[in-house]
Every structure is written in C-alpha cells, then in structure tokens.
Amino acid sequence: MLLERPGDPRRAVELLEAIDPNRFPITETVDHTLAVYARQFAFRGRLYEKLGERDKAIAAYERFAAIWANADAVLQPDVRAARAAIARLREGEE
Known about the structure:
Elements: H1 9-17, H2 33-50, H3 54-67, H4 76-91
C-alpha cells in the first residue's frame, strides 16, 4: 500500500485507524467504500506484524475475516490468508 512505501509503518497504521465508515458518503450508485474499509483491516494486520504488535495484528485480521466471512468465493483466499495469519501469530504466543 502506498502509505507504507516511505518506510513509516507506524504513520501508515495511524492513518488507517482514522478511517470511520460513518464519514463515508451515502450515494445511490454502487459504492466500493465499504469493501476498501474491510480490506484495510488486513493491511493493518500486516503493518502491526511489522511493528511487532501481535495482539493488534490478530485483532485486525479477525475483524477482516469477520467482515468478509460471507464474501464471494473470489475473495475467500484473502479470508483464508487472514485466518492463517491469526493462527501463525497465536502459535508464536507460547
């Protein structure tokens, strides 16, 4: 993601944390804003992993997996990847 390129994952995750769906515009056309909102939780998880914040990474991945649990089949690999990340992070808690 572009926010991460300057090499500042902390700033990138702070910007993502500021996203609030209550601020999204409501329109009568198809709006992909909620899909972007959901996907940013997976990105947050990766950023939190880079920052060594395991609990926050797990929480972000769990939120993503919950939002997209019933998503179309084409999106399920992303859900499986998030669940695999959760399992991997939990294994490291020992």
